[in-house]
Amino acid sequence: MERIGRDINHVPILEGKNFPIWNILLKVKLSARGLREIRNSDGPPNSDPITINNWNKLNLEAIQLILSRPHPDIIATVVDAVTFKDAKDLWKKLNEKYAAQTITNQGRTWLRWECLQLNGKIKEYVKEFQSILFDIAGIGISLPQDIMAYSILQKVSRDSDSYDHVINSMRLTMNAMINPQQVLDKLLEL
Hints:
Helices cover 67% and strands 0% of the residues. The protein is mainly α. It has 2 domains: 2-100, no CATH class; 107-188. The radius of gyration is 23 Å and the shape is elongated. It starts with a helix and ends with a helix. Pfam families: Retrotran_gag_2 (PF14223).
């Protein structure tokens, strides 16, 4: 571990949104130590005991290096019985969780939200909104639930005059704590 500690300090602590730079710098460190292939490997290349023993040591070193720079809260979300023992699975889990939180991905997801149009197909519209809401939650965009719900209502009223009476009645009948899913459920009742 001492070998890891001396030259890893210029790799930033992974806090989520800085994943792209953390990812690049850690790949450089893994490559410099001859561990990049371990991170991509499904296990030792053959059943020779010396090869297996050497692979296990390199795998452990790769895991130690990967886990030396994330914030403790992040470590708690990615380390489990599988990732604790396998550098490839650990790397894959980190990528699945944090690559999606990049600014580019947030922007792309928000533009999907902004550009979504009704086009007269309410069920498809609701399904796509639900998909986008799931993506928004997954990539760390946070807006008050009522603002998002009113945004959905505004999009529906802009896209079709025939829904005005429904939208007005929803605004009157929904409680003060309106959320996007309530609005989508009401739209499906149409």
